[in-house]
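Notes from the pairing session

We agreed to fold both candidates in a single pass and log them together. This is the raw record for the first candidate, unedited. Please don't reformat it; downstream parsing expects exactly this layout.

Candidate A
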Amino acid sequence: METAKKTDHAKYDRQLRLWGEEGQSFLEDSKVCLINATATGCETLKNLVLPGIGNFTIVDGNKVQMKDFNNFFIVEGSLGRSRAEVTKETLTELNDLVTGSFLERDPVDLINSEPDYFKQFTIVVVNDLPEDSLLKLGKICWDNSIVLIVVRVSGFVGYIRVIVPEHTIIESKPDNPIDDLRIANPFPELEKYADAIDMSTLNSTDHSHTPFIVLLLKEVKKWKASHGGKFPENYSEKSVFKKAILDSKLNSDEQNFDEAFKASFKAFPTKMPSTTQAILRDPQSLQITPQSSKFWILAAAVREFVDNEGAGNLPLMGSIPDMHATTTSYIALQRIFIEKASQDVEAVTKRVKNILKSVGKQEDLISADEIKKFCKNSHFLQCVRYRSLEDERASPKTADLKSRINDPDSNAVWDVALRAADRFEAVHKRYPGAVEASVEDDIVALKKIAQDITTELKLDTPIDDKYVQELVRYGDSELHTMASLFGGVTSQEIIKLITHQYLPLDNTFVYNGIISTTTTFSV
């Protein structure tokens, strides 16, 4: 994708190193809607405005009250003014490249009377919305594949929920990425290069600088020749294989042999990552239509490549790790991998063009850079599918929820308790404990609602009274420290979703500030 012209490389230097120009372009093209300018909502927007989202809109019908001054973006002298307008003005001061707007209107009324209003946004962030209105908004977003983020903070606890039908990721950037070195199944050019090196004729310098990839290729070939073409199959055989590597040293200082020993596991056959396998065989990859996204067209092309030119292998990544070698041997080896990766990309490109043509699309719809990136990251593809709010309510994962609620190390019970508080607000038009004189009555009422929810969820064990009492004790409080924390986590997930990089949470995150623990789970 062409980088947006407004990108300021000096301003965004650090983040460009993190998610690249394409990620920044996605960010600058995004439109975020915040429903209700609470402290948590504004902290979330702050962390999106600073890195340069394209546009944000705040929808809020409230006037600034005294309780709103826990929000750093409500400035002195704002009492009685539109909360949406005040926070919009303050937030836009953070980055002159971001466009902000506001709509002073009750979100509930907007959802009921103008549901199409929300179709313009990339992501909708919601907090403090009644349950029935949230369900309506959830359906609007779900039907239009708009990401919905629900964030809820009360006192020392809160949760974030991500909801979207499907989210695909090319650059998932795992913590421990694999090296695609093809030692177990070398391509002809690599095998020819390794075979041309005769270790017995090398001088001590060249012997100690032979790349470990070559050493492993030779050791595998030697092993298979004496074991009927089989690889080491068990711990004992693999130990013998590793020992043979060190036995080939001419002296103890040969670091390249030590590297080969440590990387010996890379010489054994491995399976294609299960996540990639699932994507290549997904119905959306098998049945390309004119409505198919670029991701699924690329997946279909790679699947065809694997089944044909790739002979069961994904396109080569084309990179090799640092290793003990001469500059000449390292560059020669690197060139072999780059050229093979280029050949694989070329083969996939032909298949992409054929697929596009078959569904009536222009053959150049997907750029060369997009194809190359997909091939390079094909080992790390991810597709996350969420459940809609309607589905969550209609078909709760009772067995999973029971297990989590009964787990003393899980915070899942807070998810249910906060849901009860939201339902209380829908009935009483205020949160439990917000009026001091009614605290005792609120505890009784909230406990009854919590029991109703556990019955709906088919849970055997009712929520312990201590959770109900704690929420009533919080009243309508939104601590700024909690708002800041949740704003940071929420914005981080939003950036993942906008840039289609890194793996977002699936799908609920709960933080218990009382004991400083987190729990992530799918509902």
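Candidate B (folded immediately after A)
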Amino acid sequence: MIPCSLTTRRTSDTLPSDVSNPVAQLESVLANLSTRGKRVENAPDDLDARQVWSFTAGDTSYHLHFYPRSRSIVARLRTGNRALVEFANLQILQKSNIPAPRPISVLLGFRLAGETGDAVILESLEPGLRLDRYLFDFDARGEPIPDRRHILKQLIAILQQMGLAKVGHDRLDLSRFVLLDGRVLLHDVRGMRKDGLKLEHMLRLAHDARGLATRTDLVCAWQVLAPEAQVPESNTLTPRLWQRIIRTIFGRGAGTHFQRIHNGGWQGVFTRLAPRPLRWSRASRIVALQEDWQRAWPILLQQIESDQLSVIKRDAAGDVLRGEVILNGQPIDVVVKRPKRKRFSQYLIDLVRPARASRSWDKTWKMLIRDVPAEFPMILMERRVPILGYALDGIVVYEHVPGGKTLAKADLDEIPPDARQRFFDRAGRILRRIDDLGYAHADAKSTNWMVFEDPADGPTPVLIDLDGLRYYPWAMLGFNRLMRAMRQHPQFTPDDSLHLCKGYAPEARVTREDDAGAQPGIMPPAP
């Protein structure tokens, strides 16, 4: 006998009737689950202590969610019995006709591999895929989602049914759903509430689906879910979710996206998992482990100190180098930036503010989470004074944006006319978005843009240096800086200038500048 109550709570039609003595078979497998079952790897953003196991009893496949019991009585009182809560929530979904995995049984006092805890048995979801991985995979490759409208229709139906059943979910995002044989199911009930579906829950899902769902999709969903209310102009929850990620960008403790690292006399933070994958970054589509960087960092540091990396730029402000690291078994081209202090005043100012490498890491992530195309930050390392914490040296590593050439060195005449027009229009819109967010890019010159060949959208501008980002709303600062730099490009034409202007201010009146005689510019508003 296994030390648990196998049928403490069980749905009425759980076990298949055509299998001889299914309960005995199930008990036999559970008694030796550590050897007869297979532990399913947790999702990269699932830091819960829950273990997920897959096993087969008879001809039926099951999943088991195992919750080890905490030794702390306070923690157990705070969280309650998580297995019972999950089982009860799955039953509520089943009774409310909300597509979800069918719960089989809950096991209390279950022992697994020497640990005591509680577990829930439910029907297997294999070979299902988590919905966010499925959708983001197509988006990262630049391919259209084949069953996009069918998935949207099912999501709307699930939300509508949740509203009717007064079931809410305060962690509602795409990762809570799974796609199995063309059906969308709500598979993760952690965060489920019994006080109804609220506007905040739907806004969280809409925020997670940004870039995948069009404005038309959002309006259609709103008209079904809240037909009497007006469609909001913007997602009011988005700034709060941005701030939630910003508070973790220096990896205080073990987090979903960032983790702290110490190696030798260096300490810092690395990106464990990108909030969402980027088309121009392979590193954003893998999970970087602590062990990977503990191996890669000493090798990279030795290459930097011995000057083995190729030099992109080297001056009094610092070094910009190019190398390679191995993460998760994959070689990744990287750009290493090691800033230097040129003046004595910088040593004094850095007593009360983060050092330049840390500020660069901070600024880049603040733009990336706001959907501004920028290079992907991988790790920030600093050598600090042990007691005071003053940063003596700092190195920040970014993934090299594929493309090889900056906008200053790009052959614009090789780009087809339509793609060339879209490129400068996008560059203008990126600068306008930075301004609209309340920032200003004082160094948006052409050498700080990469031309990335997007597999779906063609040449796309990506920012590679955000050190010049300023925390004040100075309109047109970045636009004027890019325009001045592009005038030095021999292939930059008045049409390119016109499309850059229209991308930045599509409704503004465009005029020719008298001093240039050829380049269009944006007419400033009348006083």
